[in-house]
Amino acid sequence: xxxxxxxxxxxxxxxxxxxxxxxxxxxxxxxxxxxxxxxxxxxxxxxxxxxxxxxxxxxxxxxxxxxxxxxxxxxxxxxxxxxxxxxxxxxxxxxxxxxxxxxxxxxxxxxxxxxxxxxxxxxxxxxxxxxxxxxxxxxxxxxxxxxxxxxxxxxxxxxxxxxxxxxxxxxxxxxxxxxxxxxxxxxxxxxxxxxxxxxxxxxxxxxxxxxxxxxxxxxxxxxxxxxxxxxxxxxxxxxxxxxxxxxxxxxxxxxxxxxxxxxxxxxxxxxxxxxxxxxxxxxxxxxxxxxxxxxxxxxxxxxxxxxxxxxxxxxxx
Length: 317
Fold this sequence. Notes:
By secondary structure, the protein is an alpha+beta fold. It has 5 helices and 14 strands.
């Protein structure tokens, strides 16, 4: 009996304490702010164009390089409205092996009065070319241009190989350069494959102030060369030299533009491996993103040339 008189008050106090703690928890929970929703993931494909497309995802294009002008500003067109990094951007390119860069032949022929080796460098290691820090730089030591290249559109054999060497010690970068695989004779590229083009080219037609700081990406679809209708030219395409690619969605006209030249057209093949299938070569004037397809150098058709160029002399090979 005496134990009951002692134990009952203790149980009541414990129950009362539990009720008070529970009430406090409910009040705190009600007062706590609702956690923000998780961030929306970036889109997997562009809903516009490189001419205003979407930023490339980190780590998605480590083979992308920039051909950058280091010539004295007095040799560049006078344009005080543009930042210096925009004025110095020239072309894109693709890292295919340590010390080797593929680009378009028309990018490897410098402007009048400039020398490619003395007045240009290759930059890599960052998606943002508006900042010089955090990028690795390379001097150009050998230049091999396809001997069959001729200007004009669509140009034949618009391909060049550059041998490059690092300038200074290797610095840590956000996007360490990583070579992209080349297709082989066994690589089967579907006729209507979805492909991706990347570059720092114009985001608005004929607007050199629209060059973006960050690398842009767009999804395209290959078009068989026999049915490739290009605005502004009747010259036939050669499937052994050219690839034709246009918007994958007619409602969302994707395209490359000026300043994207020489940059990579890539395809994700078996086992999710990325291949360099094309180089930005040519498009009808003043039509970037207007629905007309663009022309890309067919890399698979130049594999033998690439190997010969590595071993051959500098110049037209």
